[in-house]
Amino acid sequence: MKIKRVFLIVLDSCGAGELPDAADFGDVGANTIRSVSRAKSFKIDTLRRMGYGNIEGLDFLGRVDNPTAAVARLAERSRGKDTTIGHWEIAGVVSDAPLPTYTDGFPAEVLDEFEMATGRGVLCNKPYSGTAVIHDYGREHIESGKLIVYTSADSVFQIAAHEDVVPVETLYEYCRAARKILTGKHAVGRVIARPFTGEFPNYIRTPRRHDFSLEPPEKTVLDALSAAGYDTIGVGKISDIFAGRGISKSYYTRSNAEGMNITSDVTKQDFNGLCFVNLVDFDSLFGHRRDAEGYAAALAEFDTWLGGWLNDLQDDDIVMITADHGCDPDFAATTDHTREYVPLFVWGKAVKPENLGTRATYADIAATVADIFDVPLKTEGNSFAHEVMDI
Fold first, then answer.
1. Suppose 277 and one of 9, 116, 142, 380 were both cysteines; which one would form an S-S bond, judging by CB atoms 3.0 to 4.6 Å apart?
2. What is this structure's pTM?
């Protein structure tokens, strides 16, 4: 059967247990889905039927005799555990070196140039929680006009500013200036605009966040599909992650619910190619904030939507569901991302529900998508298309 559309959905941070090299990242013992499965609101009937508990290492979720999807456990070959590196690998690019991080803040050479470009001073300049940083520095920012610059364990340069002090479009311009500065050895994965509103102590981050990402160093499956004339639709922060490259149409979202609604709408469109979806709330609202109950409720919401949405798909559609890293909400060592395997589900009329075991790289997804659409792609990944479907 010739496949017309592939829907690739990333459950941001829904890891499947520690990788063999987890010790190198301080993540021994991390297992996002195990932690989430202990929550009272955990309910994933659709994903269980697809074979979640049949994935290696996840039998605590309950194995099923006749799964409705092909499943696998994917290892991350890249040396990182962040959104950018993870999505790049899903799209076919393996990164041998991690992107730079700044546990002690950014060096003077970076901040001096940034202050010169923006005409504003800088506050904070250290790793910080996004909600805590505006609480602790918000009043000084409003009084002085200085920008709140902070980072995390990820490769990010984040700029927070009150919308009454710095209009959002101006904040975006400051981020573009930072993006031009942060190159070479300081080429962080993302520069992130973090606008907020309100009055102390009740500052609130607004949904007008915007990411200014580093371009992937090599061609991705998005580039390959676009060059061959296929549609490439991004939902959520996909366009941001790939700096807009290889994306023919993009839909920005403010929540998982909006992302699912837009994906349902895209399903009704007559397109030929890839719809690449990121659902970020699992990570940003629940993993980092150590909220296992909220994480489980969000996963249950996705599972319910998924059960209905699959009925709307066509016979020549394929669905792939995976993750980009872990973010274990119960992991004692850190509130940051965790170095984990990720699950993979492959569903469709043309799919044989095989168990593909544990595979060496997320890039197998890109290799498979390229194989399905018969486009050339140089990648370290290996296609599993012919193992699970007749194409």
1. 9
2. 0.93
What values do phi and psi take at 231, rounded to 5?
-75, 140
pLDDT tops 90 at residue 98: no
Domains of the chain: 5-98+216-388 (3.40.720.10), 108-213 (3.30.70.1250)
One-letter amino acid of 59 = D
Q: φ and ψ at 243, to 5 degrees?
A: 55, 30
* Residue 391, number of CB atoms within 10 A of its CB: 16
281, two tokens: 């709330």
Note whether 17 and 36 are within 8 A (CB).
no
- Taken as a whole, the chain contains a residue count of 391
* Short-list 188, 133, 196, CA closest to 163: 196
Q: Which amino acid belongs to residue 359?
A: R
Do residues 33 and 14 make contact, with C-beta atoms less than 8 angstroms apart? yes
Q: Distance (Å, rounded) from C-alpha 80 to C-alpha 84?
A: 9
Look at residue 292 and give its three-state secondary structure.
Answer: helix
CB 304 within 8 A of CB 49: no
Cα–Cα separations (whole angstroms), residue 83 to 19, 21, 133, 156, 215 = 17, 18, 21, 10, 13
For residue range 26-58, what is the model confidence (pLDDT) as tens digits? 999 999 999 999 999 999 999 999 999 999 999
SS3 18: strand
Return all residues near 62 (Cβ < 8 A) that are at least 6 apart. Answer: 48, 53
Reference 69, options 336, 371, 329, 318; nearest CA is 318
Question: Using 50, 70 and 90 to split pLDDT, how confident is the model at 335?
Answer: confident
Among candidate residues 5, 26, 117, 98, the one with its CA nearest the CA of residue 373: 5
Closest CA to 255 of 243, 267, 247, 263: 263
Q: How buried is residue 26: exposed, middle or buried, by Cβ count under 10 Å (0-12/13-18/19+)?
A: middle
- 322 vs 345: CA distance, rounded Å: 7
The Cα–Cα gap between 243 and 290 comes to 29
- Are 54 and 344 within 8 A, CB to CB? no
Q: How far apart are CA 46 and CA 154, in angstroms?
A: 32
pLDDT band at 336 (very low <50, low <70, confident <90, very high): confident
